[in-house]
Amino acid sequence: MLVAAALSAPTDPDNAWDLAVSGPENDHPERALCRAAFVADAAWVRRLLADDELLAGLPLGEDERASLAQAAGL
């Protein structure tokens, strides 16, 4: 899930580094589809991020939490 969230992040067209690494948004329609899937299941992403017992064996850093939240539109 973390990889899917990170790879679905939109590319900033004004950021040369972002474009060089990820390519233009138009070349990767799968990103928008992945973001749509996260948004459709945002309630589950919210529950996952709030479940400390579930995450006890897999501590998420703030960057990882932010990536999941951003992908889900939270």
User: Sheet with the most strands?
Assistant: none
Secondary structure: number of strands: 0
Rg, Å, rounded? 13 Å
In terms of quaternary structure, what is this? single chain
Shape: elongated
Order of helices and strands: HHHHHH
* Percent in helix: 55-70%
The share of residues in extended strands comes to under 5%
- In round numbers, the mean pLDDT is 85
Protein traits:
74 residues; mainly alpha
Structure description:
This protein is an all-alpha fold and 74 residues long. It is 65% helix and 0% strand. The chain is built from six helices and no strands. The protein has helices at 2-7, 16-22, 29-40, 42-50, 52-55, 62-71. The protein is elongated and about 40 Å long. The model has no long low-confidence stretch (mean pLDDT 85).
Write the layout of secondary structure elements.
Layout: H1 2-7, H2 16-22, H3 29-40, H4 42-50, H5 52-55, H6 62-71
Outline:
The protein is an all-alpha fold and 74 residues long. The chain has 6 helices and no strands.
